[in-house]
Amino acid sequence: MSEPVRGVVVAHGSLAQGLVSSVLAISGVEGDALVPLSNEGCGPEALQASVTGALGDEGPAIVFTDMGSGSCAFTARRIALERPGTGIVTGVNLPVLLDFVFHREMPLAELVERLVEKGRAGVSGAHREAAAHADRAV
Q: What values do phi and psi take at 80, rounded to 5?
């Protein structure tokens, strides 16, 4: 059995804490599968040190960021260049993180691809005419 992938969610303000808290409440997963970090008040070096510390030195890990650019994503990319076994998923949402906690045993590259697809599938749209079906999944 391979080592489970660890996750660090890095986002603006309190978003990471809210996402991780929701995932743990919905999934019932306990432990340190996901660590939330905020970029609030952090310069580039402080944020990188914080994320690097949360990831640890070894083992597969994914850094989830709220956007594909900005300080969180830039930090994730710098770390992935230096730390082997580090994946990046940007534009994180609740479906992505829920899927992550239930599939942490997958190989890192396959897991990253899976999560990107889950993220895309987790976004949908509706309009007023669809309200007649408000109690159905879209």
A: -65, -30
